[in-house]
Structure to design on (421 residues):
């Protein structure tokens, strides 16, 4: 029998009779699944990771079988692992949905569709199993376990800026996962720090990427992180026909076309979200912390200017501010909003002198009002920030004792020949 949602206790062993008996996951989508047998899933609850409107996520020790491709979590291997987790069977994250489901509803659930369709990728959360309990008709999903998310990492810094090399590796990994999602025909729609999972893997001395650092600058010691994009409940196919719902993502990371209630949008909303996230991990605070829909649009104008004006170009020939956007002015008129007349700030004034110029330029090219003018994931991966600046820390450090399969899969994807021991 499965335990009631709010009654689970840590160290409690949970046994669930679920169907189907086994599901082929990890990028092998089968729309029709025979429900001929049930099987017992057993796990020990370790702690609650999160509780949302739709489900609760628990860190658990899994006692049953998982797909052969499932890797041992980096949280339970390596020299710096917590001792109480080191000898567990298998750390996983178990998400239990609060709604009562039928099996037909389960197989049509957006998150399951996306995770079972997109091929596995080292920077996307892996779905290991899913099942419907036979007694309460509760849907369970079993994922690879991660330590926390980008929001937790930012808060834990308590104002201590991330090393430039660490920022570049976070950027590269988010882009790698996002490019894989878009290349697989989907866009995420809810990109925010809470949906970017993080596990720290030890410490590393990063080569300085500061433009004002001397050539013989001392390395910057900081954490090594593994990044995975999660929560695909709002994802849609890029080829899907609009209209889409206007409410996606937390307001601070919401693209302007969504703020203005457009029902016709696509992958560029993810690129806007990426730009806001990159600015936040640099400054450790949100770039556009609006208190409401109107205030959010005003916050954009205070930094990017209003989209009706042409404010010229910077020294690199790039448009100052967010650029002109006729469609946005039309959308604003439809909802009775008038953009405040503001001149844009130079984006470089929002960052300290140690932030690479090419990173600021990348953020600027993502934060364009006009969705068609934002960089794509492919263009970002070829951006000078990654090819010239981030490449100074392109090799992936492997902390002693960590299972190398995680790092090797990353190295293979990015074409990195060197692994640091």
């Amino acid at each position: 029998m499965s335990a009631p949602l709010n009654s689970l206790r840590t160290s409690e062993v949970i046994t669930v009779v679920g169907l189907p008996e086994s599901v082929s996951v990890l990028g092998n989508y089968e729309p029709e699944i025979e429900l001929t047998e049930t099987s017992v899933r057993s796990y020990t609850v370790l702690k609650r990771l999160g509780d949302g409107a739709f489900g609760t996520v628990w860190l658990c020790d899994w006692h049953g079988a998982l797909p052969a491709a499932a890797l041992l979590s980096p949280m339970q291997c390596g020299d710096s692992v917590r001792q109480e987790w080191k000898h567990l069977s298998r750390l996983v994250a178990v998400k239990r949905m609060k709604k009562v489901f039928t099996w037909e509803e389960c197989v049509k659930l957006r998150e399951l569709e996306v995770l079972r369709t997109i091929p596995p990728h080292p920077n996307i959360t892996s779905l290991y199993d899913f099942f419907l309990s036979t007694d309460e008709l509760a849907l369970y999903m079993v994922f690879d376990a991660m330590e926390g998310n980008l929001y937790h990492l930012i808060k834990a810094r308590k104002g201590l800026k991330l090393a430039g090399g660490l920022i570049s590796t976070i950027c590269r990994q988010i882009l790698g996962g996002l490019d894989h999602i878009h290349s697989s025909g989907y866009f995420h729609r809810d990109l925010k720090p809470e949906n970017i999972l993080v596990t720290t893997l030890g410490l590393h001395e990063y080569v300085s990427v500061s433009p004002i650092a001397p050539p013989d600058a001392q390395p910057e010691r900081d954490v090594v992180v593994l990044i995975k994009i999660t929560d695909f409940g709002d994802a849609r196919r890029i080829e899907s026909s609009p209209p889409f719902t206007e409410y996606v993502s937390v307001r601070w990371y919401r693209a302007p076309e969504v703020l203005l209630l457009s029902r016709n949008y696509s992958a560029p909303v993810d690129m806007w979200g990426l730009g806001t996230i990159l600015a936040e991990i640099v400054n450790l605070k949100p770039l556009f912390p609006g208190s409401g829909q109107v205030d959010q649009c005003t916050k954009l104008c205070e930094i990017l200017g209003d989209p009706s004006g042409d404010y010229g170009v910077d020294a690199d020939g790039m448009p100052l501010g967010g650029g002109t956007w006729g469609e946005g002015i039309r959308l604003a008129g439809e909802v009775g909003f008038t953009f405040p007349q503001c001149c844009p700030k130079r984006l470089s004034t929002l960052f300290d002198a140690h932030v690479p110029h090419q990173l600021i330029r990348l953020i600027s090219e993502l934060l364009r009002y006009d969705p068609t003018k934002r960089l794509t994931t492919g263009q970002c991966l070829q951006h000078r920030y990654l090819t010239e600046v981030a490449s100074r820390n392109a090799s992936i450090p492997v902390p002693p004792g960590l299972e190398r399969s995680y790092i090797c899969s990353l190295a293979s994807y990015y074409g990195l020949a060197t692994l640091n021991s």
About this structure: Residues 5-144 form a domain with the Phosphorylase Kinase; domain 1 fold (CATH 3.30.200.20). The CA atoms of residues 106 and 139 lie 7 Å apart. The two ends are 46 Å apart (CA to CA).
